[in-house]
Amino acid sequence: MSNKKGNSFIKQAAILGAAGLLVRVIGILYRSPLTSIISDEGNGYYSSAYNIYAIILLISSYSIPLAISKIISGKLALREYRNAHRVFISALLYVVVVGGIASLFAFIGAPFLVESNSVPALRVLAPTIFFSGLLGVLRGYFQAHSSMVQTSLSQILEQLVNAIVSVLAAWLLTRAYVGGAAAYQVPIRGAQGGAMGTGAGVLTGLIFMFLMYLLNRSFFQRRLQRDKTETLQSYPEIFKMILLMVTPVILSTFIYNSVTAIDSTLYYKIMMYFKGWAQEKTAVQYGVFATKYTTIINIPVALASSFSSAMIPGVSGSYEVGDLTTARSRINEAIRFTMILCFPAMVGIGVLAYPIMLLLFPQPETIALASNLLRVGCVCIIFYSLSTVTNAVLQGIGKVNIPMRNAALALVVHLAVLVPLLFFTNWNLYALLLGTAAYSLTMCVLNDLSVRKYLQYRLEVKKTLLLPALSAGIMGVVTWASYYGLRIAGLGNIISLGVSIVLSMLTYFVAILGTKTITEEELVRFPKGSVLIRLGKKLHLL
Question: Residue 237's CB: how many other CB atoms inside 10 A?
Fold first, then answer.
C-alpha cells in the first residue's frame, strides 16, 4: 500500500462513494423481502432497538475512525511513523475497554432503554458494539493513509452478509409463529433476526479488515524501521490526545446523530402514553418512517459521507503544515461535487416517489403514506449532505467543539418544532419530517458560518447551489414526463421507471454542461472524467 502524492482526493472519494451507493442499494434490496417477512410493525421494533444501539455505539466508539484518521494523518504528514503506530495501538486498547463496557450496558439495560417488544433485538445488537469499535479503528488507520479501497470493500462485504443473514434469520425465527395462536411474535422475532444480520455483517467486516492489515503489515514495519523521529510520545500522552480528540467528536457526533433516537423515543412515548395508541400501531407508523423513508433518503447522503471521509486526511494534513489554499481547494471540491450529485438525486426521488415505493415497498396499507413522506422530505437530502461535509471540515481542522455547539443549537430548534407538533396536531410522521428538516437546515447555516470564520472559505452559491438546482429542475421535468408518459402508453412500473431514470441521467448531464455548472477542467477530475469529456464533445457541449 502506498500514499502517492498524485492520488486524487476525488478518486478516493469516488471509491468510497461507489461503495457507499452499493451498500445503500443492497440495503434497500434486502429491506424489501425483510419487510414482507416481519411487516412494518417488525420494522418499527427493529428501528427502535437500532436507534438506541446506534447512540450507545456513538458514545463508545463510532467516532474512532474520524479521530484516528485525523490524528494519524497529522503524524504521517510529519513522517512520524512510530508515533502514528502508537496512536493505532492505543486506539485499539481504548475500544476494547470502552466497547466492552458499552456492550454490557446495552445488553443488561435493554428493558429500560426500549419498549418491551424491542428488547430481544437490542440484546442481539449489544455485542456488535464491541466489534464495531475494533472495525472502526482499522478503517480509520487505512483512511489516514488515504487508502479507501480496504474500507470500501469491507463495507460492501458487511452489507452483503447483513442482507443475507437478516432475511434468513428473520424467516427462520418467524416461521414457527406464522398463522398460529402466537402470531403476535412474528414481528418481534423478525426484528431479532434483522439484528442478527447486523452483527454478522460487522463481524465479517472486522475479519476482512484484520486480514488487510496483516497483508500490509510488512509495509508498515519497513516504515517504522526507517523512522528517525527522535521524540516518541508516551502511551499516557497518546491516550490523553485520543481522549481530547474523541470526546468532543463523540459529543458532536452524538448530538448530530441522536436526533433519530430522540425522535423514536418521543414518538413512541407521546403516541402511546399521551394519545393512547397501541404499541403495535405506533410501531407500524414509525416503521414506515424509519425503514422506508429514511432508507431511501440515506442513499444520496452516503455520497456526502464518502466525500467527507476521503477529505479529512487531506484537509488535516494541509492545515497541519499551514497550507490553507490547498485545504480550501479540497473543501470546495468536496462540496461542489456533492451538490452536483445530490441535487438530481433529490429531484428524482421527489418526482418518482410513488413508483420507487411501488417497486421496493409495495405494501398497500402504507404505500401512500411512505410515498408522501418521500415526496415532501426529499429536500432533507441537500441539508444533510451539506451539513455532513461541513461537519467533517471543522473536525478535520481540529475545531471539534464547533460542530458540537452547532449540533446542540440545531437540536434545540428541532425539539422546538417537533414537540408541539406531536402534542397538539395530528400530523404524526409529518411532524417528524418537519423537525428533521429544521434540524438539518440549522446545521447547514451554522456550519457554513463557522467554516467562513476559521478558513475564510465562502460557498460559491451560483456554481455550487443555483446551477445544479437549475439543471436538476430541467431534469425533473423530463423525469416526470417520461415516466408518466410511458405509464399512459401501457408500460409497467419497472420498465417505465428504468427508462425514465436513464433519460433523466442523460438530461442532467446535458444540462450541467449546457449551464456551465461544471467545466472540462473540473470534469477531468471526476471518476471516468475522460469518458464524460468525450461524450460531451460528441454532443457539442464542450
Answer: 13
- The CA distance from 234 to 223, in Å, is 19
Give the DSSP letter of residue 230.
Answer: S
287: left (phi over 0), alpha (psi -120 to 50) or beta: alpha
Predicted pLDDT at 1: 44
Roughly what angle, to the nearest 10 degrees, separates helices 279-287 and 235-269? 120
Q: What is the secondary structure of 400-424 as a DSSP string? A: THHHHHHHHHHHHHHHHHHHHHHHH
Q: Is 5 exposed, middle or buried (0-12, 13-18, 19+ CB in 10 A)?
A: exposed
Question: Quick one: residue 457, left, alpha or beta (phi over 0 = left, psi -120 to 50 = alpha)?
Answer: beta
Cell of 89: 495501538
User: What confidence score (pLDDT) does residue 531 get?
Assistant: 82
The pLDDT, as a whole number, for residue 229 is 76
Residues 6 or more apart whose Cβ sits within 8 Å of residue 1? 142, 145, 147, 216, 219
pLDDT in the model for residue 6: 36
- Average model confidence (pLDDT) for the chain? 88
Alpha carbon distances (Å) from 417 to 293, 308, 387, 432, 455: 20, 29, 19, 9, 32
In DSSP notation, 259-310 reads HHHHHHHHHHHIIIIIS---HHHHHHHHHIIIIIIHHHHHHHHHHHHHHHHH
3-state secondary structure at position 1: coil
154-198 per-position pLDDT tens digit: 989 999 999 999 999 999 999 989 888 889 999 999 999 999 999
* 3 state SS for 64-123: HHHHHHHHHHHHHHCCCHHHHHHHHHHHHHHHHHHHHHHHHHHHHHHHHHCCHHHHHHHH
Which residues are CB-neighbours of 509 under 8 A, at least 6 positions away? 532, 535, 536
Which residues of the chain have a pLDDT value below 50?
A: 1-7
d(CA 90, CA 99): 14
The answer to whether 249 and 398 have CB atoms below 8 angstroms apart is: no
Closest CA relative to residue 19, chosen from 216, 226, 158, 113: 158
Helix-strand-coil percent breakdown of the chain, rounded to 5?
85, 0, 15
The residue with cell 433518503 is 297
Q: Which residues lie below 8 Å from residue 174, measured CB to CB, with a gap of 6+? A: 37, 38, 185, 186, 189, 190, 193
The continuous run of DSSP H or E covering 216 comes out as helix 185-226
Residue whose grid cell is 497483508: 215
Its sign, for the CA torsion 16, 18, 23, 25, is: positive
Give the start-to-end residue ranges of the domains of the chain: 9-459
Do the beta carbons of residue 160 and residue 124 sit within 8 Å? no
| Closest C-alpha to 416, from 264, 249, 266, 251 | 266
